[in-house]
# Entry
Amino acid sequence: MTSRSLVLRGIPASPGIVIGRAKVLSDRGEVQASFRLIYTEEERTAELARFQGAVDQAQEDLSLLKEEIAGEFPEHAHLLELHLLILKDQMLYDEPRRLIRESNLNAEWALNQAFEKVKALFRRIEDPYIKGRIQDVESVYRRLLGNLTGKNPRRHFNAPDPIIIVARDLSPAETTQMTASQVVGFITERGGKTSHTAIVAQSLEIPAVVGVDAATQRIAPGVELILDGLTGRIIVEPGDDLRRTYRNRRQEFELFKGEVAAFSNLPAITPDEQRTRVMANIELPEEVAVAKKHGADGIGLYRTEFLYLRLRHVPSEEDLYQDYRRVVEEMAPLPVTIRTLDIGGDKFLSPLDYPQELNPALGLRAIRFCLKEQAIFRKQLRAILRASAHGPVQVMFPLISNVREMREARELLAELKEELVREGLPFDPRLPVGAMIEVPAAVTLAGLLSREADFFSIGTNDLIQYALAIDRGNKQVAEMYQPLHPAVLRMIKMVVEAGREAGIPVAMCGEMAGDPLYLPILLGLGVTELSMNAMAIPMVKHVIRSFEVQEARDMARHALELVTVEEINDYAAREMRQRFPEICRFSSALAGNLVT
# Structure
């Protein structure tokens, strides 16, 4: 590396390596909301009309964009549908109008104050996937503010040569307008692996690195960049040696990627003929197409919170049924596992007046919330049962911490089955019922819970946080969030053994399931089903086909003998490098340890 080269680091969001010139989209001229008080009824009427005009214009622009995108990228049209729905959200549509009428604010400032309230709400949400949706709300906010001021910035990506976009953030609409002939990669200061822009970039196969601090200030327009979407590294003004090294590495990666993708629709069977089901996690019905494209053996986790968040009120049974039916029919004959509502009273769903909780992660959420507010829970369970008539469905309850919760949920499910029989509505009477293992209490009670459940699904995202007392969203302690911590491995082992003794399958649906570094140890511990982001499926299947079960068991056994997380991490990385060098070289999770 030359002395001139600057290396920036971010989050690898879409794999691949590209070399190109920077196109910096500066937000220094971004429109700011102005403050003005209004005093007369005539002014209020005028401000309300201005606000409505901004909404109407945004709706027209987004609808046109959706039509354009639907032709070339139909699996992403739903992202613009989300933005259209946000336009009429009560907090971004009704609240500004209320502030204009009751607080005598001009339209721009009323919109700004409403957006600040939305941001405060999202800060209280624990789930990182849902938390990340604030970027979509902000994209709509910026569009509306631009329409109000007449200064809506139009970003165009036309260029005679391929470029790498550098921006504070990119909306899904902007990302889908990129084409391989113009934009070969992008770098953003904001976002994470679950942001919509990252998901779009992955499906478009455009390498991307997100979360790069001050990228728009540290990267000058027109400079040459190497973007490494495997490690999250950005090299500014590379020397000849680095340029040559990364060109070779890019060619090797493209060959490897083609080999992996070619077999993604085949089952994941080890050389000694043990099969592992590799499933997809989804949040929206539109994601089924992406899951199938990447070879998913089914849906291992259908998060159901989005419809509640999108509608901002409790959806009807029919709303839920149509949503679930669509997923089940599109995925059939492959199975769909639906997780019941994992959200709490602090998230605006309840008609009851719950006080704000100091620690929502330890409060009234998930199965606790559903059992307390059974009117909401009954609608969802009836909808899931009705959807089971259209294909193989499983239901699982989140955040189970004791046997009583499982029994009460199953009793309610049995009662609803009787209702549907009386009403003559079809459903699967043998619908499998599972418990999500996400808290240490459920681990220690796994033997007892196995008598109440047809399957287990280990939710490692929450389990690791609760077990290690680590908030991975807190930068001060995020590095202590370690999936291969000895305590975590022992908890997984306990759950698997309880499932084996009871004769029920044990799945895993947290992010840990999609990481090649952890895969041999997980399979060696006895996890029989893995569910993950759809983009990770081809690589995971490839890894499973590359080693025998006994090798995995030996690795798991040795890992359990080690006493520190550092020792286990080093051991897992070393074994993967020795056994599967090509996989380690091109896995986003491992490549950072291999490039110096």
